[in-house]
Amino acid sequence: MKSLVIALICCLGFTSQGQNNFEKGMAKAFNLWQSGNMGAAEQLFERIADAETEEWLPSYYVAQINSIKSWAEKDAQTLNAQLNKAQNYLDLAKAIEPNNPEIFVMQAHIYTNWVVFDGATYGMKYSTKINDLYNSAYKLAPNNPRVVYNKAEWDMGTAKFFGKDTKPFCKDFAKAIELFATFKPASDFHPNWGKERALQVLADCK
Known about the structure:
By secondary structure, the protein is mainly alpha-helical. Helices cover 73% and strands 0% of the residues.
């Protein structure tokens, strides 16, 4: 799990010098997360979200943490609680930033977790929504590396499911790697994860 977290977040070396209370809290939460204390990080993000009602980032990260925890979850009750919590917090983020491509990607992740858990039940329900989310995110931010590689990974998975060639999507992962090299998040706390995963899939392509 710790290596997974490191692969998902790249905000290293936080310092509290010159930061306001929001920034100090976010830095502390990320440091907890990177040290392997995901539960404490989640609780701190929740407290920040409660206090900073105009900031979408803490709610986004509560959603992401619960999405991550659900990836390998096999118990339906536990998964339901995690993904419902992820959805509730992402809805808070969405209310603040209704047209944010990063939020669209995270929403697609939450829906994908349902599909992976039980494709027979949730595949028809969420597949079209996931496609629409990635298409909307791409229209808004075609040079966002997370948008490019997550859309490509979903499209690749869909092609594989229907027995189609997945090679055409490899070029999208190569493009995402190029975009990661120049992408600059709006702050130390904005999403900046995914390069390691894109590199892994690109290596598998080769």
